[in-house]
Write a structure and sequence with these properties.
heterotrimer; A alpha/beta (462); B alpha+beta (610); C alpha/beta (663); A: 462 residues; alpha/beta; Rossmann fold; 7-stranded mixed sheet; 12 strands; 40% helix; C: alpha/beta; 22 helices; 13% strand; disordered N terminus
Amino acid sequence: MIVYQCWWKEVKPNGDECDDGHDDDDNPNNELLSTNTELTMRLLTLPTALLACLAFPDSSHATHTSNWAVLVSTSRFWFNYRHMANTLSLYRTVKRLGIPDSQIILMLPDDMACNPRNTFAGSVFNDKGRGLDLYDQKKDISPEEEAGGEGGETVGQGMPAGIEVDYRGNEVTVESFIRLLTDRWPASHPTSKRLMTDDRSNILIYMTGHGGDSFLKFQDAEEISSHDLADAFEQMYEKKRYHELLFMIDTCQANTMYTEFYSPGIVATGSSAKDQSSYSHHADQDVGVAVIDRWTYYNLDFLETRLNSTASDVRLGELFDFYTFDRVHSDAGVRYDLFPGGEHEARNRRVLDFFGNVQGVDVETAGDGLAALGDWRADLEALRRIAERQAAEEVNATQIRTDAGAQPEKHKTGKNVLPAGEANMGRDMTSLTGGEGWLKKALGATSLLALGGVWFAGGKIR
Amino acid sequence: MLLSSLFLLPAAVLAQTYTEHLHLSPLAQTSHLLAAFNFTSTTPLPAYESGHFTHFPRSLAQILQHTKTRELHLRFAWGRWDDEQWGPRPRMGRREGGTGVEIWAWLDQDHGGDVEERWSGLVNGLSGLFCASLNFIDSTRTTHPVLSFDPEGTHADGVTGQELLHGTLPHEVVCTENLTPFLKLLPCKGKAGISSLLDGHKVFDANWQTMSIDVRPICPAGGNGGGECVLEIQQTVDVVLDVERSMRARGDPIPRPRPIEELECDGGKGYGGGDTCYPKVKEGEMGWSLSRIFGTPVRGSCHLGDGHADADITLEVPLDRMVNVTNAQPLDAGNEQGIRSYRLPNHPPGQYTDLALPQQSVTQAVVQPQPPLYATRTITGSGQQHGGMHAHLRNPHPYAQTITYFESLPWFLRPYIHTLRVRNSETHENVKLEKMFYTPAKDRERGTHLELMFTVSAGGEVELSYDFEKAVLRYTEYPPDANRGFDVAPAVIRVLPNDNNTGDGGRQGSYIRTTSLLLPLPTPDFSMPYNVIILTSTVIALGFGSIFNLLTRRFVLAEEVPASKLALRVKAIVGVAQDVVGRLKGTKAVEMGGDAVGSGKGDGMGNGAG
Amino acid sequence: MALICTRLSSNAASTWLTVTEASILALRRDPRILKLPPYLSALCIVIGVSWLLVLPLNQYSRQTYVSENAILPGQVHTYYGGSEHDVFRAYRHEVAALADSSVEERSQKLNDIFRGIGLKVAQQDYTYSVGGRNISGRNSYAMLQGPRADATEAIVLVAAWRNMDDAINYSAVALVMSLARYFKRRLSLLAKSTCTFIDGKPGWSIWSKDIIFLIPSDSTAGTQAWVDAYHDNHDPSTISSLPLKAGALQGAVALDYPAGPWGHRFDKLHVVYDGINGQLPNLDLFNTAVSIASGQMGIGCTIQRMWQHNDSYRERLQTMLRGMISQGLGHASGPHSAFMPYHVDAITLQTVGDGWHDEMSLGRTVESLFRSLNNLLEHLHQSFFFYLLMHANRFVSIGTYLPSAMLVAVSFSITAIALWVQSGRPPKSAGKTLPSGEKGGKPDMTVIKEGGAVALVPTATLEVVERQLAFPLAAVLGLHFLGIVSFYTFNHVAQSSLRSSFFLFAVLSVLLPPLATFILSRTVRPSAQEYTLLHSFSLLLLGASLSTLATLNFSLALLVGLCASPFSFIRPFPARLPASLPPSFRAPLFVVSAVVLTAVSPMAILGLSNAYWGRSVVDLLADAAFGWTVWGMWTGFVIWGVWWPAWVVGACVLWSGIFVEEK
């Protein structure tokens, strides 16, 4: 029910256009936040201090050897076109930035491109301009525009044509997703559908769909809860299946999905705070559906404009600062505390560490002194991680609260943006205001009690 | 039709060959174009077994070798073939699949390991290779057909020691992610040669399209003796494109009404007036060209220099139709069937070949050959519990045809075989079933397999019908879109070859597949009103029931209740009977009889009091 | 069965329970309990009715909303118009030319046009024979196969050749044709240049379902024949099977736009949604139509012939009552009605009034509606199937309104139970209070001991009055059987003799109670208790069947229940009046009550209501017969098989006071 209403809130048939006014002022609470978290870090963990003083000059240097991406759309049905478009946009971006198809796990629960309802057969678009086909580069070349060169594959942004969907239709379930992360499969499972990572690989996990308070619906039939996700990540950590992990989620109340994480090395970001919904950006009146969600739209906007080459040095922090309220219409949240080095390190990571393939293999540093240094460093690393994981709990609470409460006044504006969306939907959203939840719960409880009573009495009376 | 003769052409055994071929034929009196791609490559069997796959895709070969698969047939299909307008199906329907995904293969039995296990290994491997959820083909979707499929390859010892397994996924969508790996299997990877025409946007905008992959061993006629056997992989893509639609401007496919001046009106109508327009029906053949229909001309060629010089493109249009060819060398200006064939230039690579047919009014009408059989299948009846299956077959030819009818039904559709009727539509007399194979379903383990063989008389119509019951699924067994209904795989009809229609390679006969069906099952209703009704009536039943009970029941002492006469009489009779029995048994039994009577009385009173 | 007291003492675990049971047992003996029921059932009826009256208030009704996410109403651009308008006019001329041509040539012409558009065409003949007269016709229909669909689903666009008012449906038929062409869009070739293809706008490839364009000869019978044949539930001898079929039907929209060849601009859309036997389409379909028409196209929507509706309480109530009456009658209200029994949701869009909307805006509404239906991935199931509409965008769902009908039904059950209990009482103590109650000093008690338990039980409890069930059961069953027989005769008697047979039947059924009671009192000599039981059984049956019916056809159950509500207050006419009245009043009083009872008989009510709506009873009966044979409409069955017997029983009970008392 939450989800439906949430969905209704999302859809704005006349979604307002994207405003290109970049406001680069850093969010003050964020800054404050960053300082005090770092402070606590330092105080809590002496090893970090030590580490800091003998850390290599460039701390944002990629120490991973491979890049993987898991892109999941969890909602079925034609009217969820935009979730497919979200995922495919990300797919296209990471492919453009060099992650090969073999290292992208793409989960699409339904078929939009070849859906008979789709006027543009074999294509999925993420804006009503329909400039860019996300599903497959069209090999549309006429002799004159092609000057004798070998064309075809490498038209457009020089990304290989074609698409490989690893899990589709009813295969996209919570079970298969968890199995994928933890890599527990029967022997006959094909390798192309497995996530074969190790402790030197960075993973980008992107999910989108209909969600609620710390759950995300799969195919409108089952849910994955934030606890399941957190435990899966912990298993991955224990099995050394990732080096660093960037978790992105675009759904209603997205930020509640990563509050439960407790495994180190994760940066998590979500589109909307608790009791907020994330909105679709705009609809295509010919396809007849909303084509993309706001948060993802601005992610792409950033990635397309700022990362136009595989060498561009853009940091995660800049990406996160791009999610301002007047763009996303909801409070996007970021969680740094699990990341070694906390916010500072995380914000310093290059975006390409997650979105692009690693450039060049890193040389095994075999120098004696360096080696010894390396060992010691490793120990400290281990120590610090332990200490951090203790630190994590405290920081959690503060962190999340600040995320949710960020920019209250803009929040208000967001609120009175809503009715525009609902009026033409002819749907009263009164039941959605915060305090209502308790009332509902109370009602449910009482009715349950009453039923129990009736049943008991009925049993006893005769 | 030419295709039927073409499709076994590469059987002329060469050691390592790769041929590709595109056949274009506009379908009569419609604005549709049939484009049939065929990519065939052969590899010497010994080389294959020793791991030297020359043109043979390695990824596929490994799966096949690992699962001991001798012969493989894999189909991806979508859309429906319009028999009335388009005539017989390409390649006599042998390279065509039912809606969704269909696969059948011959696996070795003798080698160690369970066949089912290797079968699941095969489908899993293929699912990874072709981005399709073939792994959903489990035991409930697997059948073992007997009559409908024969191996196409030459197997040394026939198919003894090999097992045929057949599986379908009727609702599996076919899309670009299936075409991409399909093209990757080709030597030229869809970059050069006719395969460069294959583009998801066009292929999947077709009214009917099917992709097939067939792997089979071929040995020269001399059996094991002469020449070495080869393994042939044949990939085909057949699409029926709506010429108008596929030549539309990509930017704006939404058909806004065209300006009135573009509309051609029929002036002959009485009611004049500027503002009315009775549209004229079109006549004449419209113009089209490869580059406009497929969005790109043929890029280069894919000749791997293995000697042969077969035609790459054949075109089947009336001889008086003009054709403008840009750099392709015509091999045949048009034989008696009106087929022109062209070969792409070898050098230089990277140049473009195009065929253009201008718009032109035809002089002689093309006669549309009849399909071997017309077949439709529908689900009849309504309601949540029962339904009926009804198939209608019509033989348009002046000779009788023997056919096999094959259905693999999901387990939750339970046919009543005793209601199976195969009758002539006009005379309503039963048609004699020559053979029948039926494997009943087991819930959640195995689907129904029904295979019939009977003869359709010359020009006759046959109705095949049976009733079925719908099973109620478990709560967890419903898919996310339960209220859509459940897909039932198409029926596969094989018209056995007879002396009238022995096409080439006639031992196969020709195939027809009906459309898939949608079976609505009883689904749990989660909507509010029903919960309300159920809840309230439960409460009422509980409260009302018990109070009514207390109010109307009279409580009396057990002793007061007169045992009803009937009960006494029954008891007496029982007693007598037991006495008789007892006498026969002897004295001991008599006491027992007495006891029985006594206790019987007690019961009687109890009953009376209730 | 164990003795009650011992059971009480034995389960000492729940003492409060023993108290309740004891009190209930005491209540069972209480004389007031027999005084209570009449007031109780009266209260039920009053509450039931007033419940209905508060429904139109804002607090009890709800704003409609589309709850199926897949529909996405009005989110697409609609392009129907422009040159299509000229084509439409042309088709309308063609249709007008067919106005007075035979069925054969008409369907021939229609088929030609459809074939010219490039669709698959087929036709179907049907003949129904009801009460001597034959209804026959020929449906012609065409199918547009979705270019990329998998042939498993279909949606239907219907325009009956003659609409419900038997006017020729010129514009609707023409509109269906031009929409068919527009959906199919075989653009006619231009000789001048092939370059038109580059900017030409060829066919849609958006249809995920096949679209069937159906033009039946008449609104109800033809559609019924077609739908039956589509599901193979037809009699092949009178109704020919369909040569051309698609997959499962997912929805149907019927058009009613009888404007002649020169067109007529309409003001509102009248959305008709009642199905046969009061079945309703899924509320989502209705909401989608309304929100598209009013929201996207700006066409006002109205329902239940409320041409003027400014959403006041009175009009809401009026709309609701009209809806209930037409639902209660259970007749087909348009071509869409035939689809409902097969769980195919359908509505009829009817153009009314003089305004500025032309055929193009109707066409665009249909286009948008079909785009929405095309979006459907599952059968419509999200929203309500049971609802009462009181405005185009205001409704109450079954959970809210069902209790009213249930209360009315329960009122009968209560009386029935009371009568049963009363019949179990010893006759002497039936009237006055229990002797062994308060002033009798120590009530005589009987000591019972069983096992270890000892109990005192008032002797009155132990008095046994056997109920004679044979006669009442036989009588009730017989009467119901009689009712069904009469229902059968009404369905099969020739229409010419309907009037006479009805009046004959009315007279007979008015005379039946006195005659029956008189003869019985001479022959079987049923006791007063047996009449009480008879009454009780009949009311019990009435209550049960009505409460069951309420979940299927709420309105019918409520209407019958209200008409039958007096039956639960009938008692045998007293032998002697209360002392307050002089005995001479007895005769007139009896006459009055007899007349009142006759006035609430089914025959009387049917006659009066028909007189009020200015129809003759014959038409009603003819329609009922037609409905039963063609649509399977069971309103008549409820009237003759449930209501009528209950009335006869009531009358018998009243008369029993006259004849039985002299025993």
